[in-house]
Design a protein that fits this description.
Elements lengths: L10 E6 L2 E6 L6 H9 L11 H20 L5 H15 L18 H18 L12 H5 L5 H37 L4 E6 L2 E7 H26 L1 E2 L16 H13 L4 E2 L3 H6 L2 H27 L10 E2 L17 H25 L9 H25 L5 E2 L1 H10 L8 H4 L1 H14 L3 H8 L6
Parallel strand pairs: 5-6
Antiparallel strand pairs: 1-2, 3-4, 7-8
Helix pairs in contact: 1-4, 2-3, 2-4, 2-6, 2-8, 3-4, 4-6, 6-7, 6-12, 7-10, 10-11, 10-12, 11-12
C-alpha cells in the first residue's frame, strides 16, 4: 500500500487591489505581504530580523486604534482586539510572520501592510474567524485607519532607534569603564608616546588607556542629544502632512497614547508637511554612528600596534589570545577582536554613505528611500553594540601591560630630551639628542654620563 498524500491546502486565496494572491495557509500576513515577498527577493534580510522595528510598528498601531476608538471612529470591540494583538507582537510573538525584505520600494508600504495584515488576521483568529475574512476586521479600513505608511513608518523607525541607541550607549559606558580600570592599573608604567609613528615624549600607559575611556564618553553624550532629536514624530500627518483621512484631533490623542505605550517623550512635528519628507535627523544620527565607528577603528588599530610582535613589534601590551593565529605558523595569535572592530567600523562608515545618498535622493513630499535609511541605521546600531560589547569582554578586560618593554622603548628613544627644552633651549637639547644617538647609549647611560636627570 502506497504512502498517503496529504490533501490539506497549502495556501489560501486573498485579494488586494491588483487581484488575487496565494498566501501560505498558516501565514498571518496577507496578499500585499505575499506580493512584496515576490517583488523584493533582494537582500535575504527580512523585517523579522529587526524586532525593535516590529515592536515599534505594533506600538503605533495600538496607539492609533485606541485614539480611533476614543474618537468614535472605531468600535471599542475592534480596538480591543487590535490592542491585544499588538500586545502579543510587542511581547515578541508572531515575528516570524514578517517576511518582507528590508530593501523594498514604496517608502515602507510593504512593512506597514505586513503589520496591518498580521494584526488583522491574528485579530480574526482571536474573534474565532478564519484568516482573510476582512469584512470583520480589515487591514486598511481598521488597523490602518487615520494612518498612512508615510507617518506610521518614520514614527516607528524613530521609536525603534530611541530604544536601540540607549543599549549602545550602555555598552559604550561599560567599555569606557573597562579602559578606566586599565588606566588605574597601568598608571605607574612609564612608556614612550608617539606622534606620526615616531618617538615623541614620555607618558604613562595608564593615561593612554584612560584617554580611550574619555573619548567614548564624548560619543555617549552626542548620542544622548541625538535621541532628543528623534523624539519629534509626524504621526497624524498621514500621506504628506495634510492630515487627509484623519480628524484634527487624531494626532494629539494618538500621540498621547503612544507616549503611554512606549514611555518615550515623543513630541509632534511642528510642520507636518516638512516632516513628511525631511530625514535630516537620520542623517545626523548616522553621522554620529560614523564618528563613533571612526574612533573605535582608530582605537582598535592602536591596540593592534601596541601589541604588535610581540617580539618583533612594539609589544608594550598583550591582548588575550582568542584563537590560533595561523593554519601554518605555530605560536601565532592574531589580534582578531580589534580586527573585527575595524571591519565593523568600515561597514558603518559605508552605511553612512548610503544613508547620505538616500536622504539626498528624496523628491518633493516624500522620501521613498526610507527603508534603506531604516535598515542602515538599525543595522549600524546593532553592529556597533555587538562590536563594543565584544571588544570589552574579549579584549580590553584581558589586556596586560609589559612594563619592561615599555621601559626599554622609552630608554632607547630621545623622548626625554623634550623635557629639557625649557631649561637649556631647543638647540642645545637637539645637540644632546644627536650625541646620544651617535653614542649608541640608551637614555639612562647617556644621562648618567652627562649629568642629566635620569627620568627626563
Amino acid at each position: 500500500m502506497g504512502d498517503s498524500v496529504s490533501t490539506a491546502p497549502r495556501t489560501r486565496r486573498e485579494q488586494d487591489s491588483l487581484g488575487p494572491m496565494e498566501v501560505p495557509v498558516n501565514a498571518l500576513y496577507g496578499a500585499q505581504t505575499a506580493r512584496a515577498v515576490e517583488n523584493f527577493p533582494i537582500s535575504g534580510i527580512t523585517l523579522e530580523q529587526f524586532p525593535p522595528l516590529i515592536r515599534a510598528l505594533a506600538q503605533v498601531k495600538q496607539a492609533a486604534a485606541r485614539a480611533n476608538a476614543a474618537l468614535g471612529r472605531m468600535t471599542q470591540a475592534k480596538a480591543d482586539v487590535i490592542s491585544k494583538v499588538c500586545d502579543e507582537i510587542i511581547a515578541g510573538h508572531h515575528h516570524r510572520h514578517f517576511p518582507v525584505d528590508v530593501l523594498q520600494g514604496g517608502a515602507g508600504t510593504s512593512s506597514n501592510m505586513n503589520v496591518n495584515e498580521v494584526i488583522a488576521n491574528r485579530g480574526l483568529e482571536l474573534m474565532g474567524l478564519p484568516c482573510g475574512s476582512y469584512e470583520h476586521l480589515h487591514p486598511n479600513d481598521d488597523v490602518n485607519r487615520a494612518q498612512s505608511t508615510n507617518d506610521v513608518y518614520p514614527t516607528a523607525v524613530r521609536i525603534a532607534l530611541m530604544t536601540a541607541v540607549p543599549l549602545l550607549m550602555s555598552a559604550l559606558e561599560d567599555l569606557a569603564d573597562a579602559y578606566d580600570r586599565k588606566g588605574d592599573a597601568f598608571e605607574g608604567i612609564r612608556k614612550l608616546g608617539r606622534t606620526e609613528l615616531q618617538d615623541a615624549v614620555p607618558m604613562t600607559l595608564g593615561a593612554e588607556m584612560r584617554a580611550y575611556g574619555h573619548t567614548l564618553r564624548e560619543d555617549v553624550a552626542r548620542l544622548q542629544a541625538a535621541i532628543g532629536l528623534l523624539s519629534e514624530v509626524n504621526l497624524g500627518g498621514t500621506a504628506i502632512g495634510t492630515r487627509v483621512a484623519a480628524t484634527p484631533e487624531f494626532q494629539s490623542l494618538a500621540l498621547a497614547e503612544l507616549r503611554r505605550i512606549t514611555g518615550l517623550a515623543l513630541t509632534p512635528s511642528s510642520d507636518l508637511i516638512e516632516a513628511s519628507w525631511d530625514v535630516g535627523v537620520f542623517v545626523h544620527l548616522s553621522g554620529n554612528f560614523k564618528r563613533l565607528a571612526t574612533k573605535l577603528s582608530k582605537m582598535a588599530s592602536d591596540l593592534r600596534l601596541l601589541s604588535s610582535g610581540p617580539r618583533g613589534g612594539l609589544g608594550e601590551i598583550s591582548l588575550p589570545p582568542m584563537q590560533p593565529g595561523s593554519s601554518l605558523m605555530p605560536g601565532k595569535a592574531n589580534p582578531v577582536i580589534p580586527e573585527m572592530v575595524n571591519q565593523v567600523a568600515f561597514q558603518v562608515i559605508g552605511i553612512d554613505v548610503s544613508i547620505t545618498c538616500a536622504a539626498e535622493g528624496g523628491q518633493l513630499q516624500l522620501n521613498p528611500f526610507e527603508p534603506l535609511i531604516a535598515y542602515g541605521l538599525l543595522h549600524a546600531v546593532q553592529l556597533l553594540r555587538n562590536a563594543v560589547e565584544t571588544l570589552r569582554l574579549r579584549c580590553v578586560e584581558g589586556i596586560e601591560a609589559r612594563p619592561a618593554r615599555c621601559a626599554a622603548h622609552l630608554s632607547a628613544s630621545t623622548a626625554n630630551f623634550a623635557a629639557l627644552v625649557p631649561e637649556i633651549g631647543y638647540d642645545n637639547a637637539s645637540a644632546l639628542a644627536r650625541d646620544m644617538m651617535e653614542s649608541g647609549e640608551d637614555w639612562d647611560a647617556f644621562a648618567k654620563r652627562r649629568g642629566l636627570p635620569t627620568r627626563g
